[in-house]
Amino acid sequence: MMFYLFAAVAVVASLLVIAQRNPIYSVLLLIASFGALSGLYVLLEAPFVAVIQIIVYAGAIMVLFLFVVMLLNAPHEETDFDERTHPLLRPGAMRLGGLLAVALVMELVWALANAADPGRFGVERVISVAAIGKMLFTEYAFAFEVTSVLILVAMVGAVVLARKEEMR
Amino acid sequence: MNAPLEYYLVLSAVLFCIGAAGVFVRRNLITILLSIEIMLNAVNLTFVAFGRAHGSADGQIIVFFVMTVAAAEAAVGLAIVISLFRFRESLNPDSFTELKW
Predict the structure, then answer these.
(1) Is residue A146 in some structural domain?
(2) Contact B6/A at CB under 8 A
(3) Does the residue A117 lie in any domain?
(4) Which of A10, B7, B87, B88 has its CA 20 to 30 A from that of A122?
(5) How far apart, in Å, are the Cα atoms of A59 and each of A68, A73, A130?
(6) d(CA B11, CA B7)
(7) Interchain contact A41–B (C-beta under 8 A)
């Protein structure tokens, strides 16, 4: 079953992302995780999302990350120092966090046991890319236009923030 | 033959927990930003799965907007990381304590 394959790849790659010491491997593994998620979107019959997941996320955003990692020539974390001084390793934080984790697991089990069975997905309506495009420019036209302003603001902000100090 | 909706929701919860754990545990600004991307993608999966379950296009459109915001967030966040690295030659969030009182 394809779902289990893609789900396993996504979970394992995501776990490795936060387990890696070298940020370059983290970025590459996250791209693998996004590829698996794109496969899941295909299984969910959302081809538009699957394609923009690859093009925008894996193609643009992750390349931006990779570029910054290589640009900074980032040092590795000092593991022994970090593990000794990590604020989450204090006893109070450990106890409270353990309690919250147990509460979260219990709530999830309760929710899964008591929820009404949503059943299998229907086969009647598959959303076409044309339908998404139409809704984007009618119902969501205002949000779509505001998005362009958001991108412009982010672009200006990134240029200003990353500028060298003496040019200011 | 497709997996039921619950499977997608559980997978999304697992991915979100991995991302949240990454934000709490890691001491590297770039890995923290990557963990935030994992969490955003977990939520995207929920949106698409619910949209599919209800036969509605809204889920996919929200995912489109989430991706736009994620792109903006990544650009600004990485710019901040670059200027912090210039300032302190470190990516450890514990070395930036200027705003702590």
Answers:
(1) no
(2) yes
(3) no
(4) A10
(5) 14, 21, 23
(6) 6
(7) yes
Amino acid letter at B46? T
Contacts of A125 in chain B (CB under 8 A): 55
Q: Is residue A84 part of a domain?
A: no
Contacts of B48 in chain A (CB under 8 A): 41, 44, 46, 49
| B72:A48 CB<8 A | no
A131 contacts B51 by C-beta, under 8 angstroms: no
Q: What is the pLDDT of residues A140-156, one digit of tens each?
A: 999 999 999 999 999 99
Does the CB of B39 have a partner CB in chain A at under 8 Å? no
Nearest chain B CA: its distance from A161 CA (Å): 6
Instruction: Give the pLDDT confidence of A88-131 residue by residue, as tens digits.
Output: 677 777 888 889 889 988 988 888 788 776 666 666 567 788 88
- Helices (H) and strands (E) counted in chain B, each on its own, are 3, 0
Contact A17 B35 (CB under 8 A): yes
User: Is residue A88 classed as helix, strand or coil in its secondary structure?
Assistant: helix
Question: Three-state SS for B56?
Answer: coil
Q: Two tokens at B10?
A: 């559980």
CATH at A12:
1.20.120.1200
